[in-house]
Design brief:
455 residues, mainly alpha
Length: 455
Amino acid sequence: MSAANAAENKMGVMPVNKLLLSMSLPMIASMFVQALYNIVDSVFVARVSEDALTAVSMAFPAQMLVVSVAGGTGVGMNALLSRNLGERNFDVANRTGRNGIFLAAVISAAFALAGVFLARPFFENQTAVAGIAEDGTAYLRICAICSFGLVFQMTLERLLQSTGKTFYSMITQITGALTNLVLDPIMIFGLFGFPRLGVAGAAAATVVGQCAASALAIYYNVTSNRELNLNMKGFRPDSRVIARIYSVGAPSILMMSLGSLTVFGLNKILIRFTTAAVAVCGIYFKLQSFVFMPIIGLNNGMVPILAYNFGARKPERIKRTILLSVCYATGIMLTGLAVFWLFTPELLGFFKASETMLAIGVPALRRISLSFLFAGFCICTLSVCQALGHGFFTLVVSVVRQIAALLPAAYVLSLLWGLNAAWWSFFIGEIFSLTLCVYYMRRLYLTEIKPLSLE
């Protein structure tokens, strides 16, 4: 056993607030950069045409699906890996990391095939506007065929996070984001002698950035992640480890995939009114990433802390971590709510919003953002469930929020009172989510965390 393994990991000894901030702030910073490049991507595309922006908005559910599968697998891998490090089961931790890399290769191949054969049917199912379908197909096909960059980036960053090396994952994400930012205008508009690729250029810039981040993440895992041995020589898939990864990760995949299905369903509802409504919905999801991405970064720092200290049987550190995370997340959400209400026209102006888009977008952003009041607590609760190995709880909350509440509410409200009423569905869905999250947080405390104090 190495000297690094023999000593207690900082997740078990460092003061909780300092630990949470040291783990989360690099992730929050990198998530801000991620949110920035997501928005800039759409800002540039909006300058091609409103139809181009609509095409990218329609591709968003399929992109979310890639993130869902890779991210959910990473959640399961991270939770299992961090828990075994806390329990000092280093052999299982190493096998978990290697099987996670193998799963990343399988996921990449599956989405590459899907991009070749399913990109065009995906768009033709959503719109009869030929220009939107053509641009969207080109954009999505590039993103899917080259999804290996994104999938390996997410997997390798999770390996760094699981051992507390969030600074390195911040560097990889910033590298990918800045690469994308630089290449976006060059590839979209054909600057410096490069051919003008339009929407396809935005996709190309994105995947080049993801590949750059993935390459850097490989370097950091090989040179700096000494707590894990990720040598793949002689590797064979371990069905038991893979099953344990997906016992936590599969509900997370389904949960995040529901988001993809929800956006797809919303687009189908909104396009009955106008393509501008679909563009507004796409703008919202880009803008809200500035609010949600930092909380995801916070949770990425929180989950390994909780998993490690649960394995190490340290309940006070678990409770302190949860309380601080909820407080920080709520503060971020309230800040986001204020920005969405005070600067709504200015936010839409970044996307060259027409008068029609402003008329739709201003009430839309203000009504949707009211759901931020409760979202911070709910997101933290779901991350606690994942960290403690109860991914099924997160699936239940997501199904109720999005499938049982949000989508039906959007459809009914749009039929009864029109487009502007449909935006209230986000708030309605969040009320359902809050109710379940309060119940599950109380249950986890009484059955999982409190009993540790009696040991």
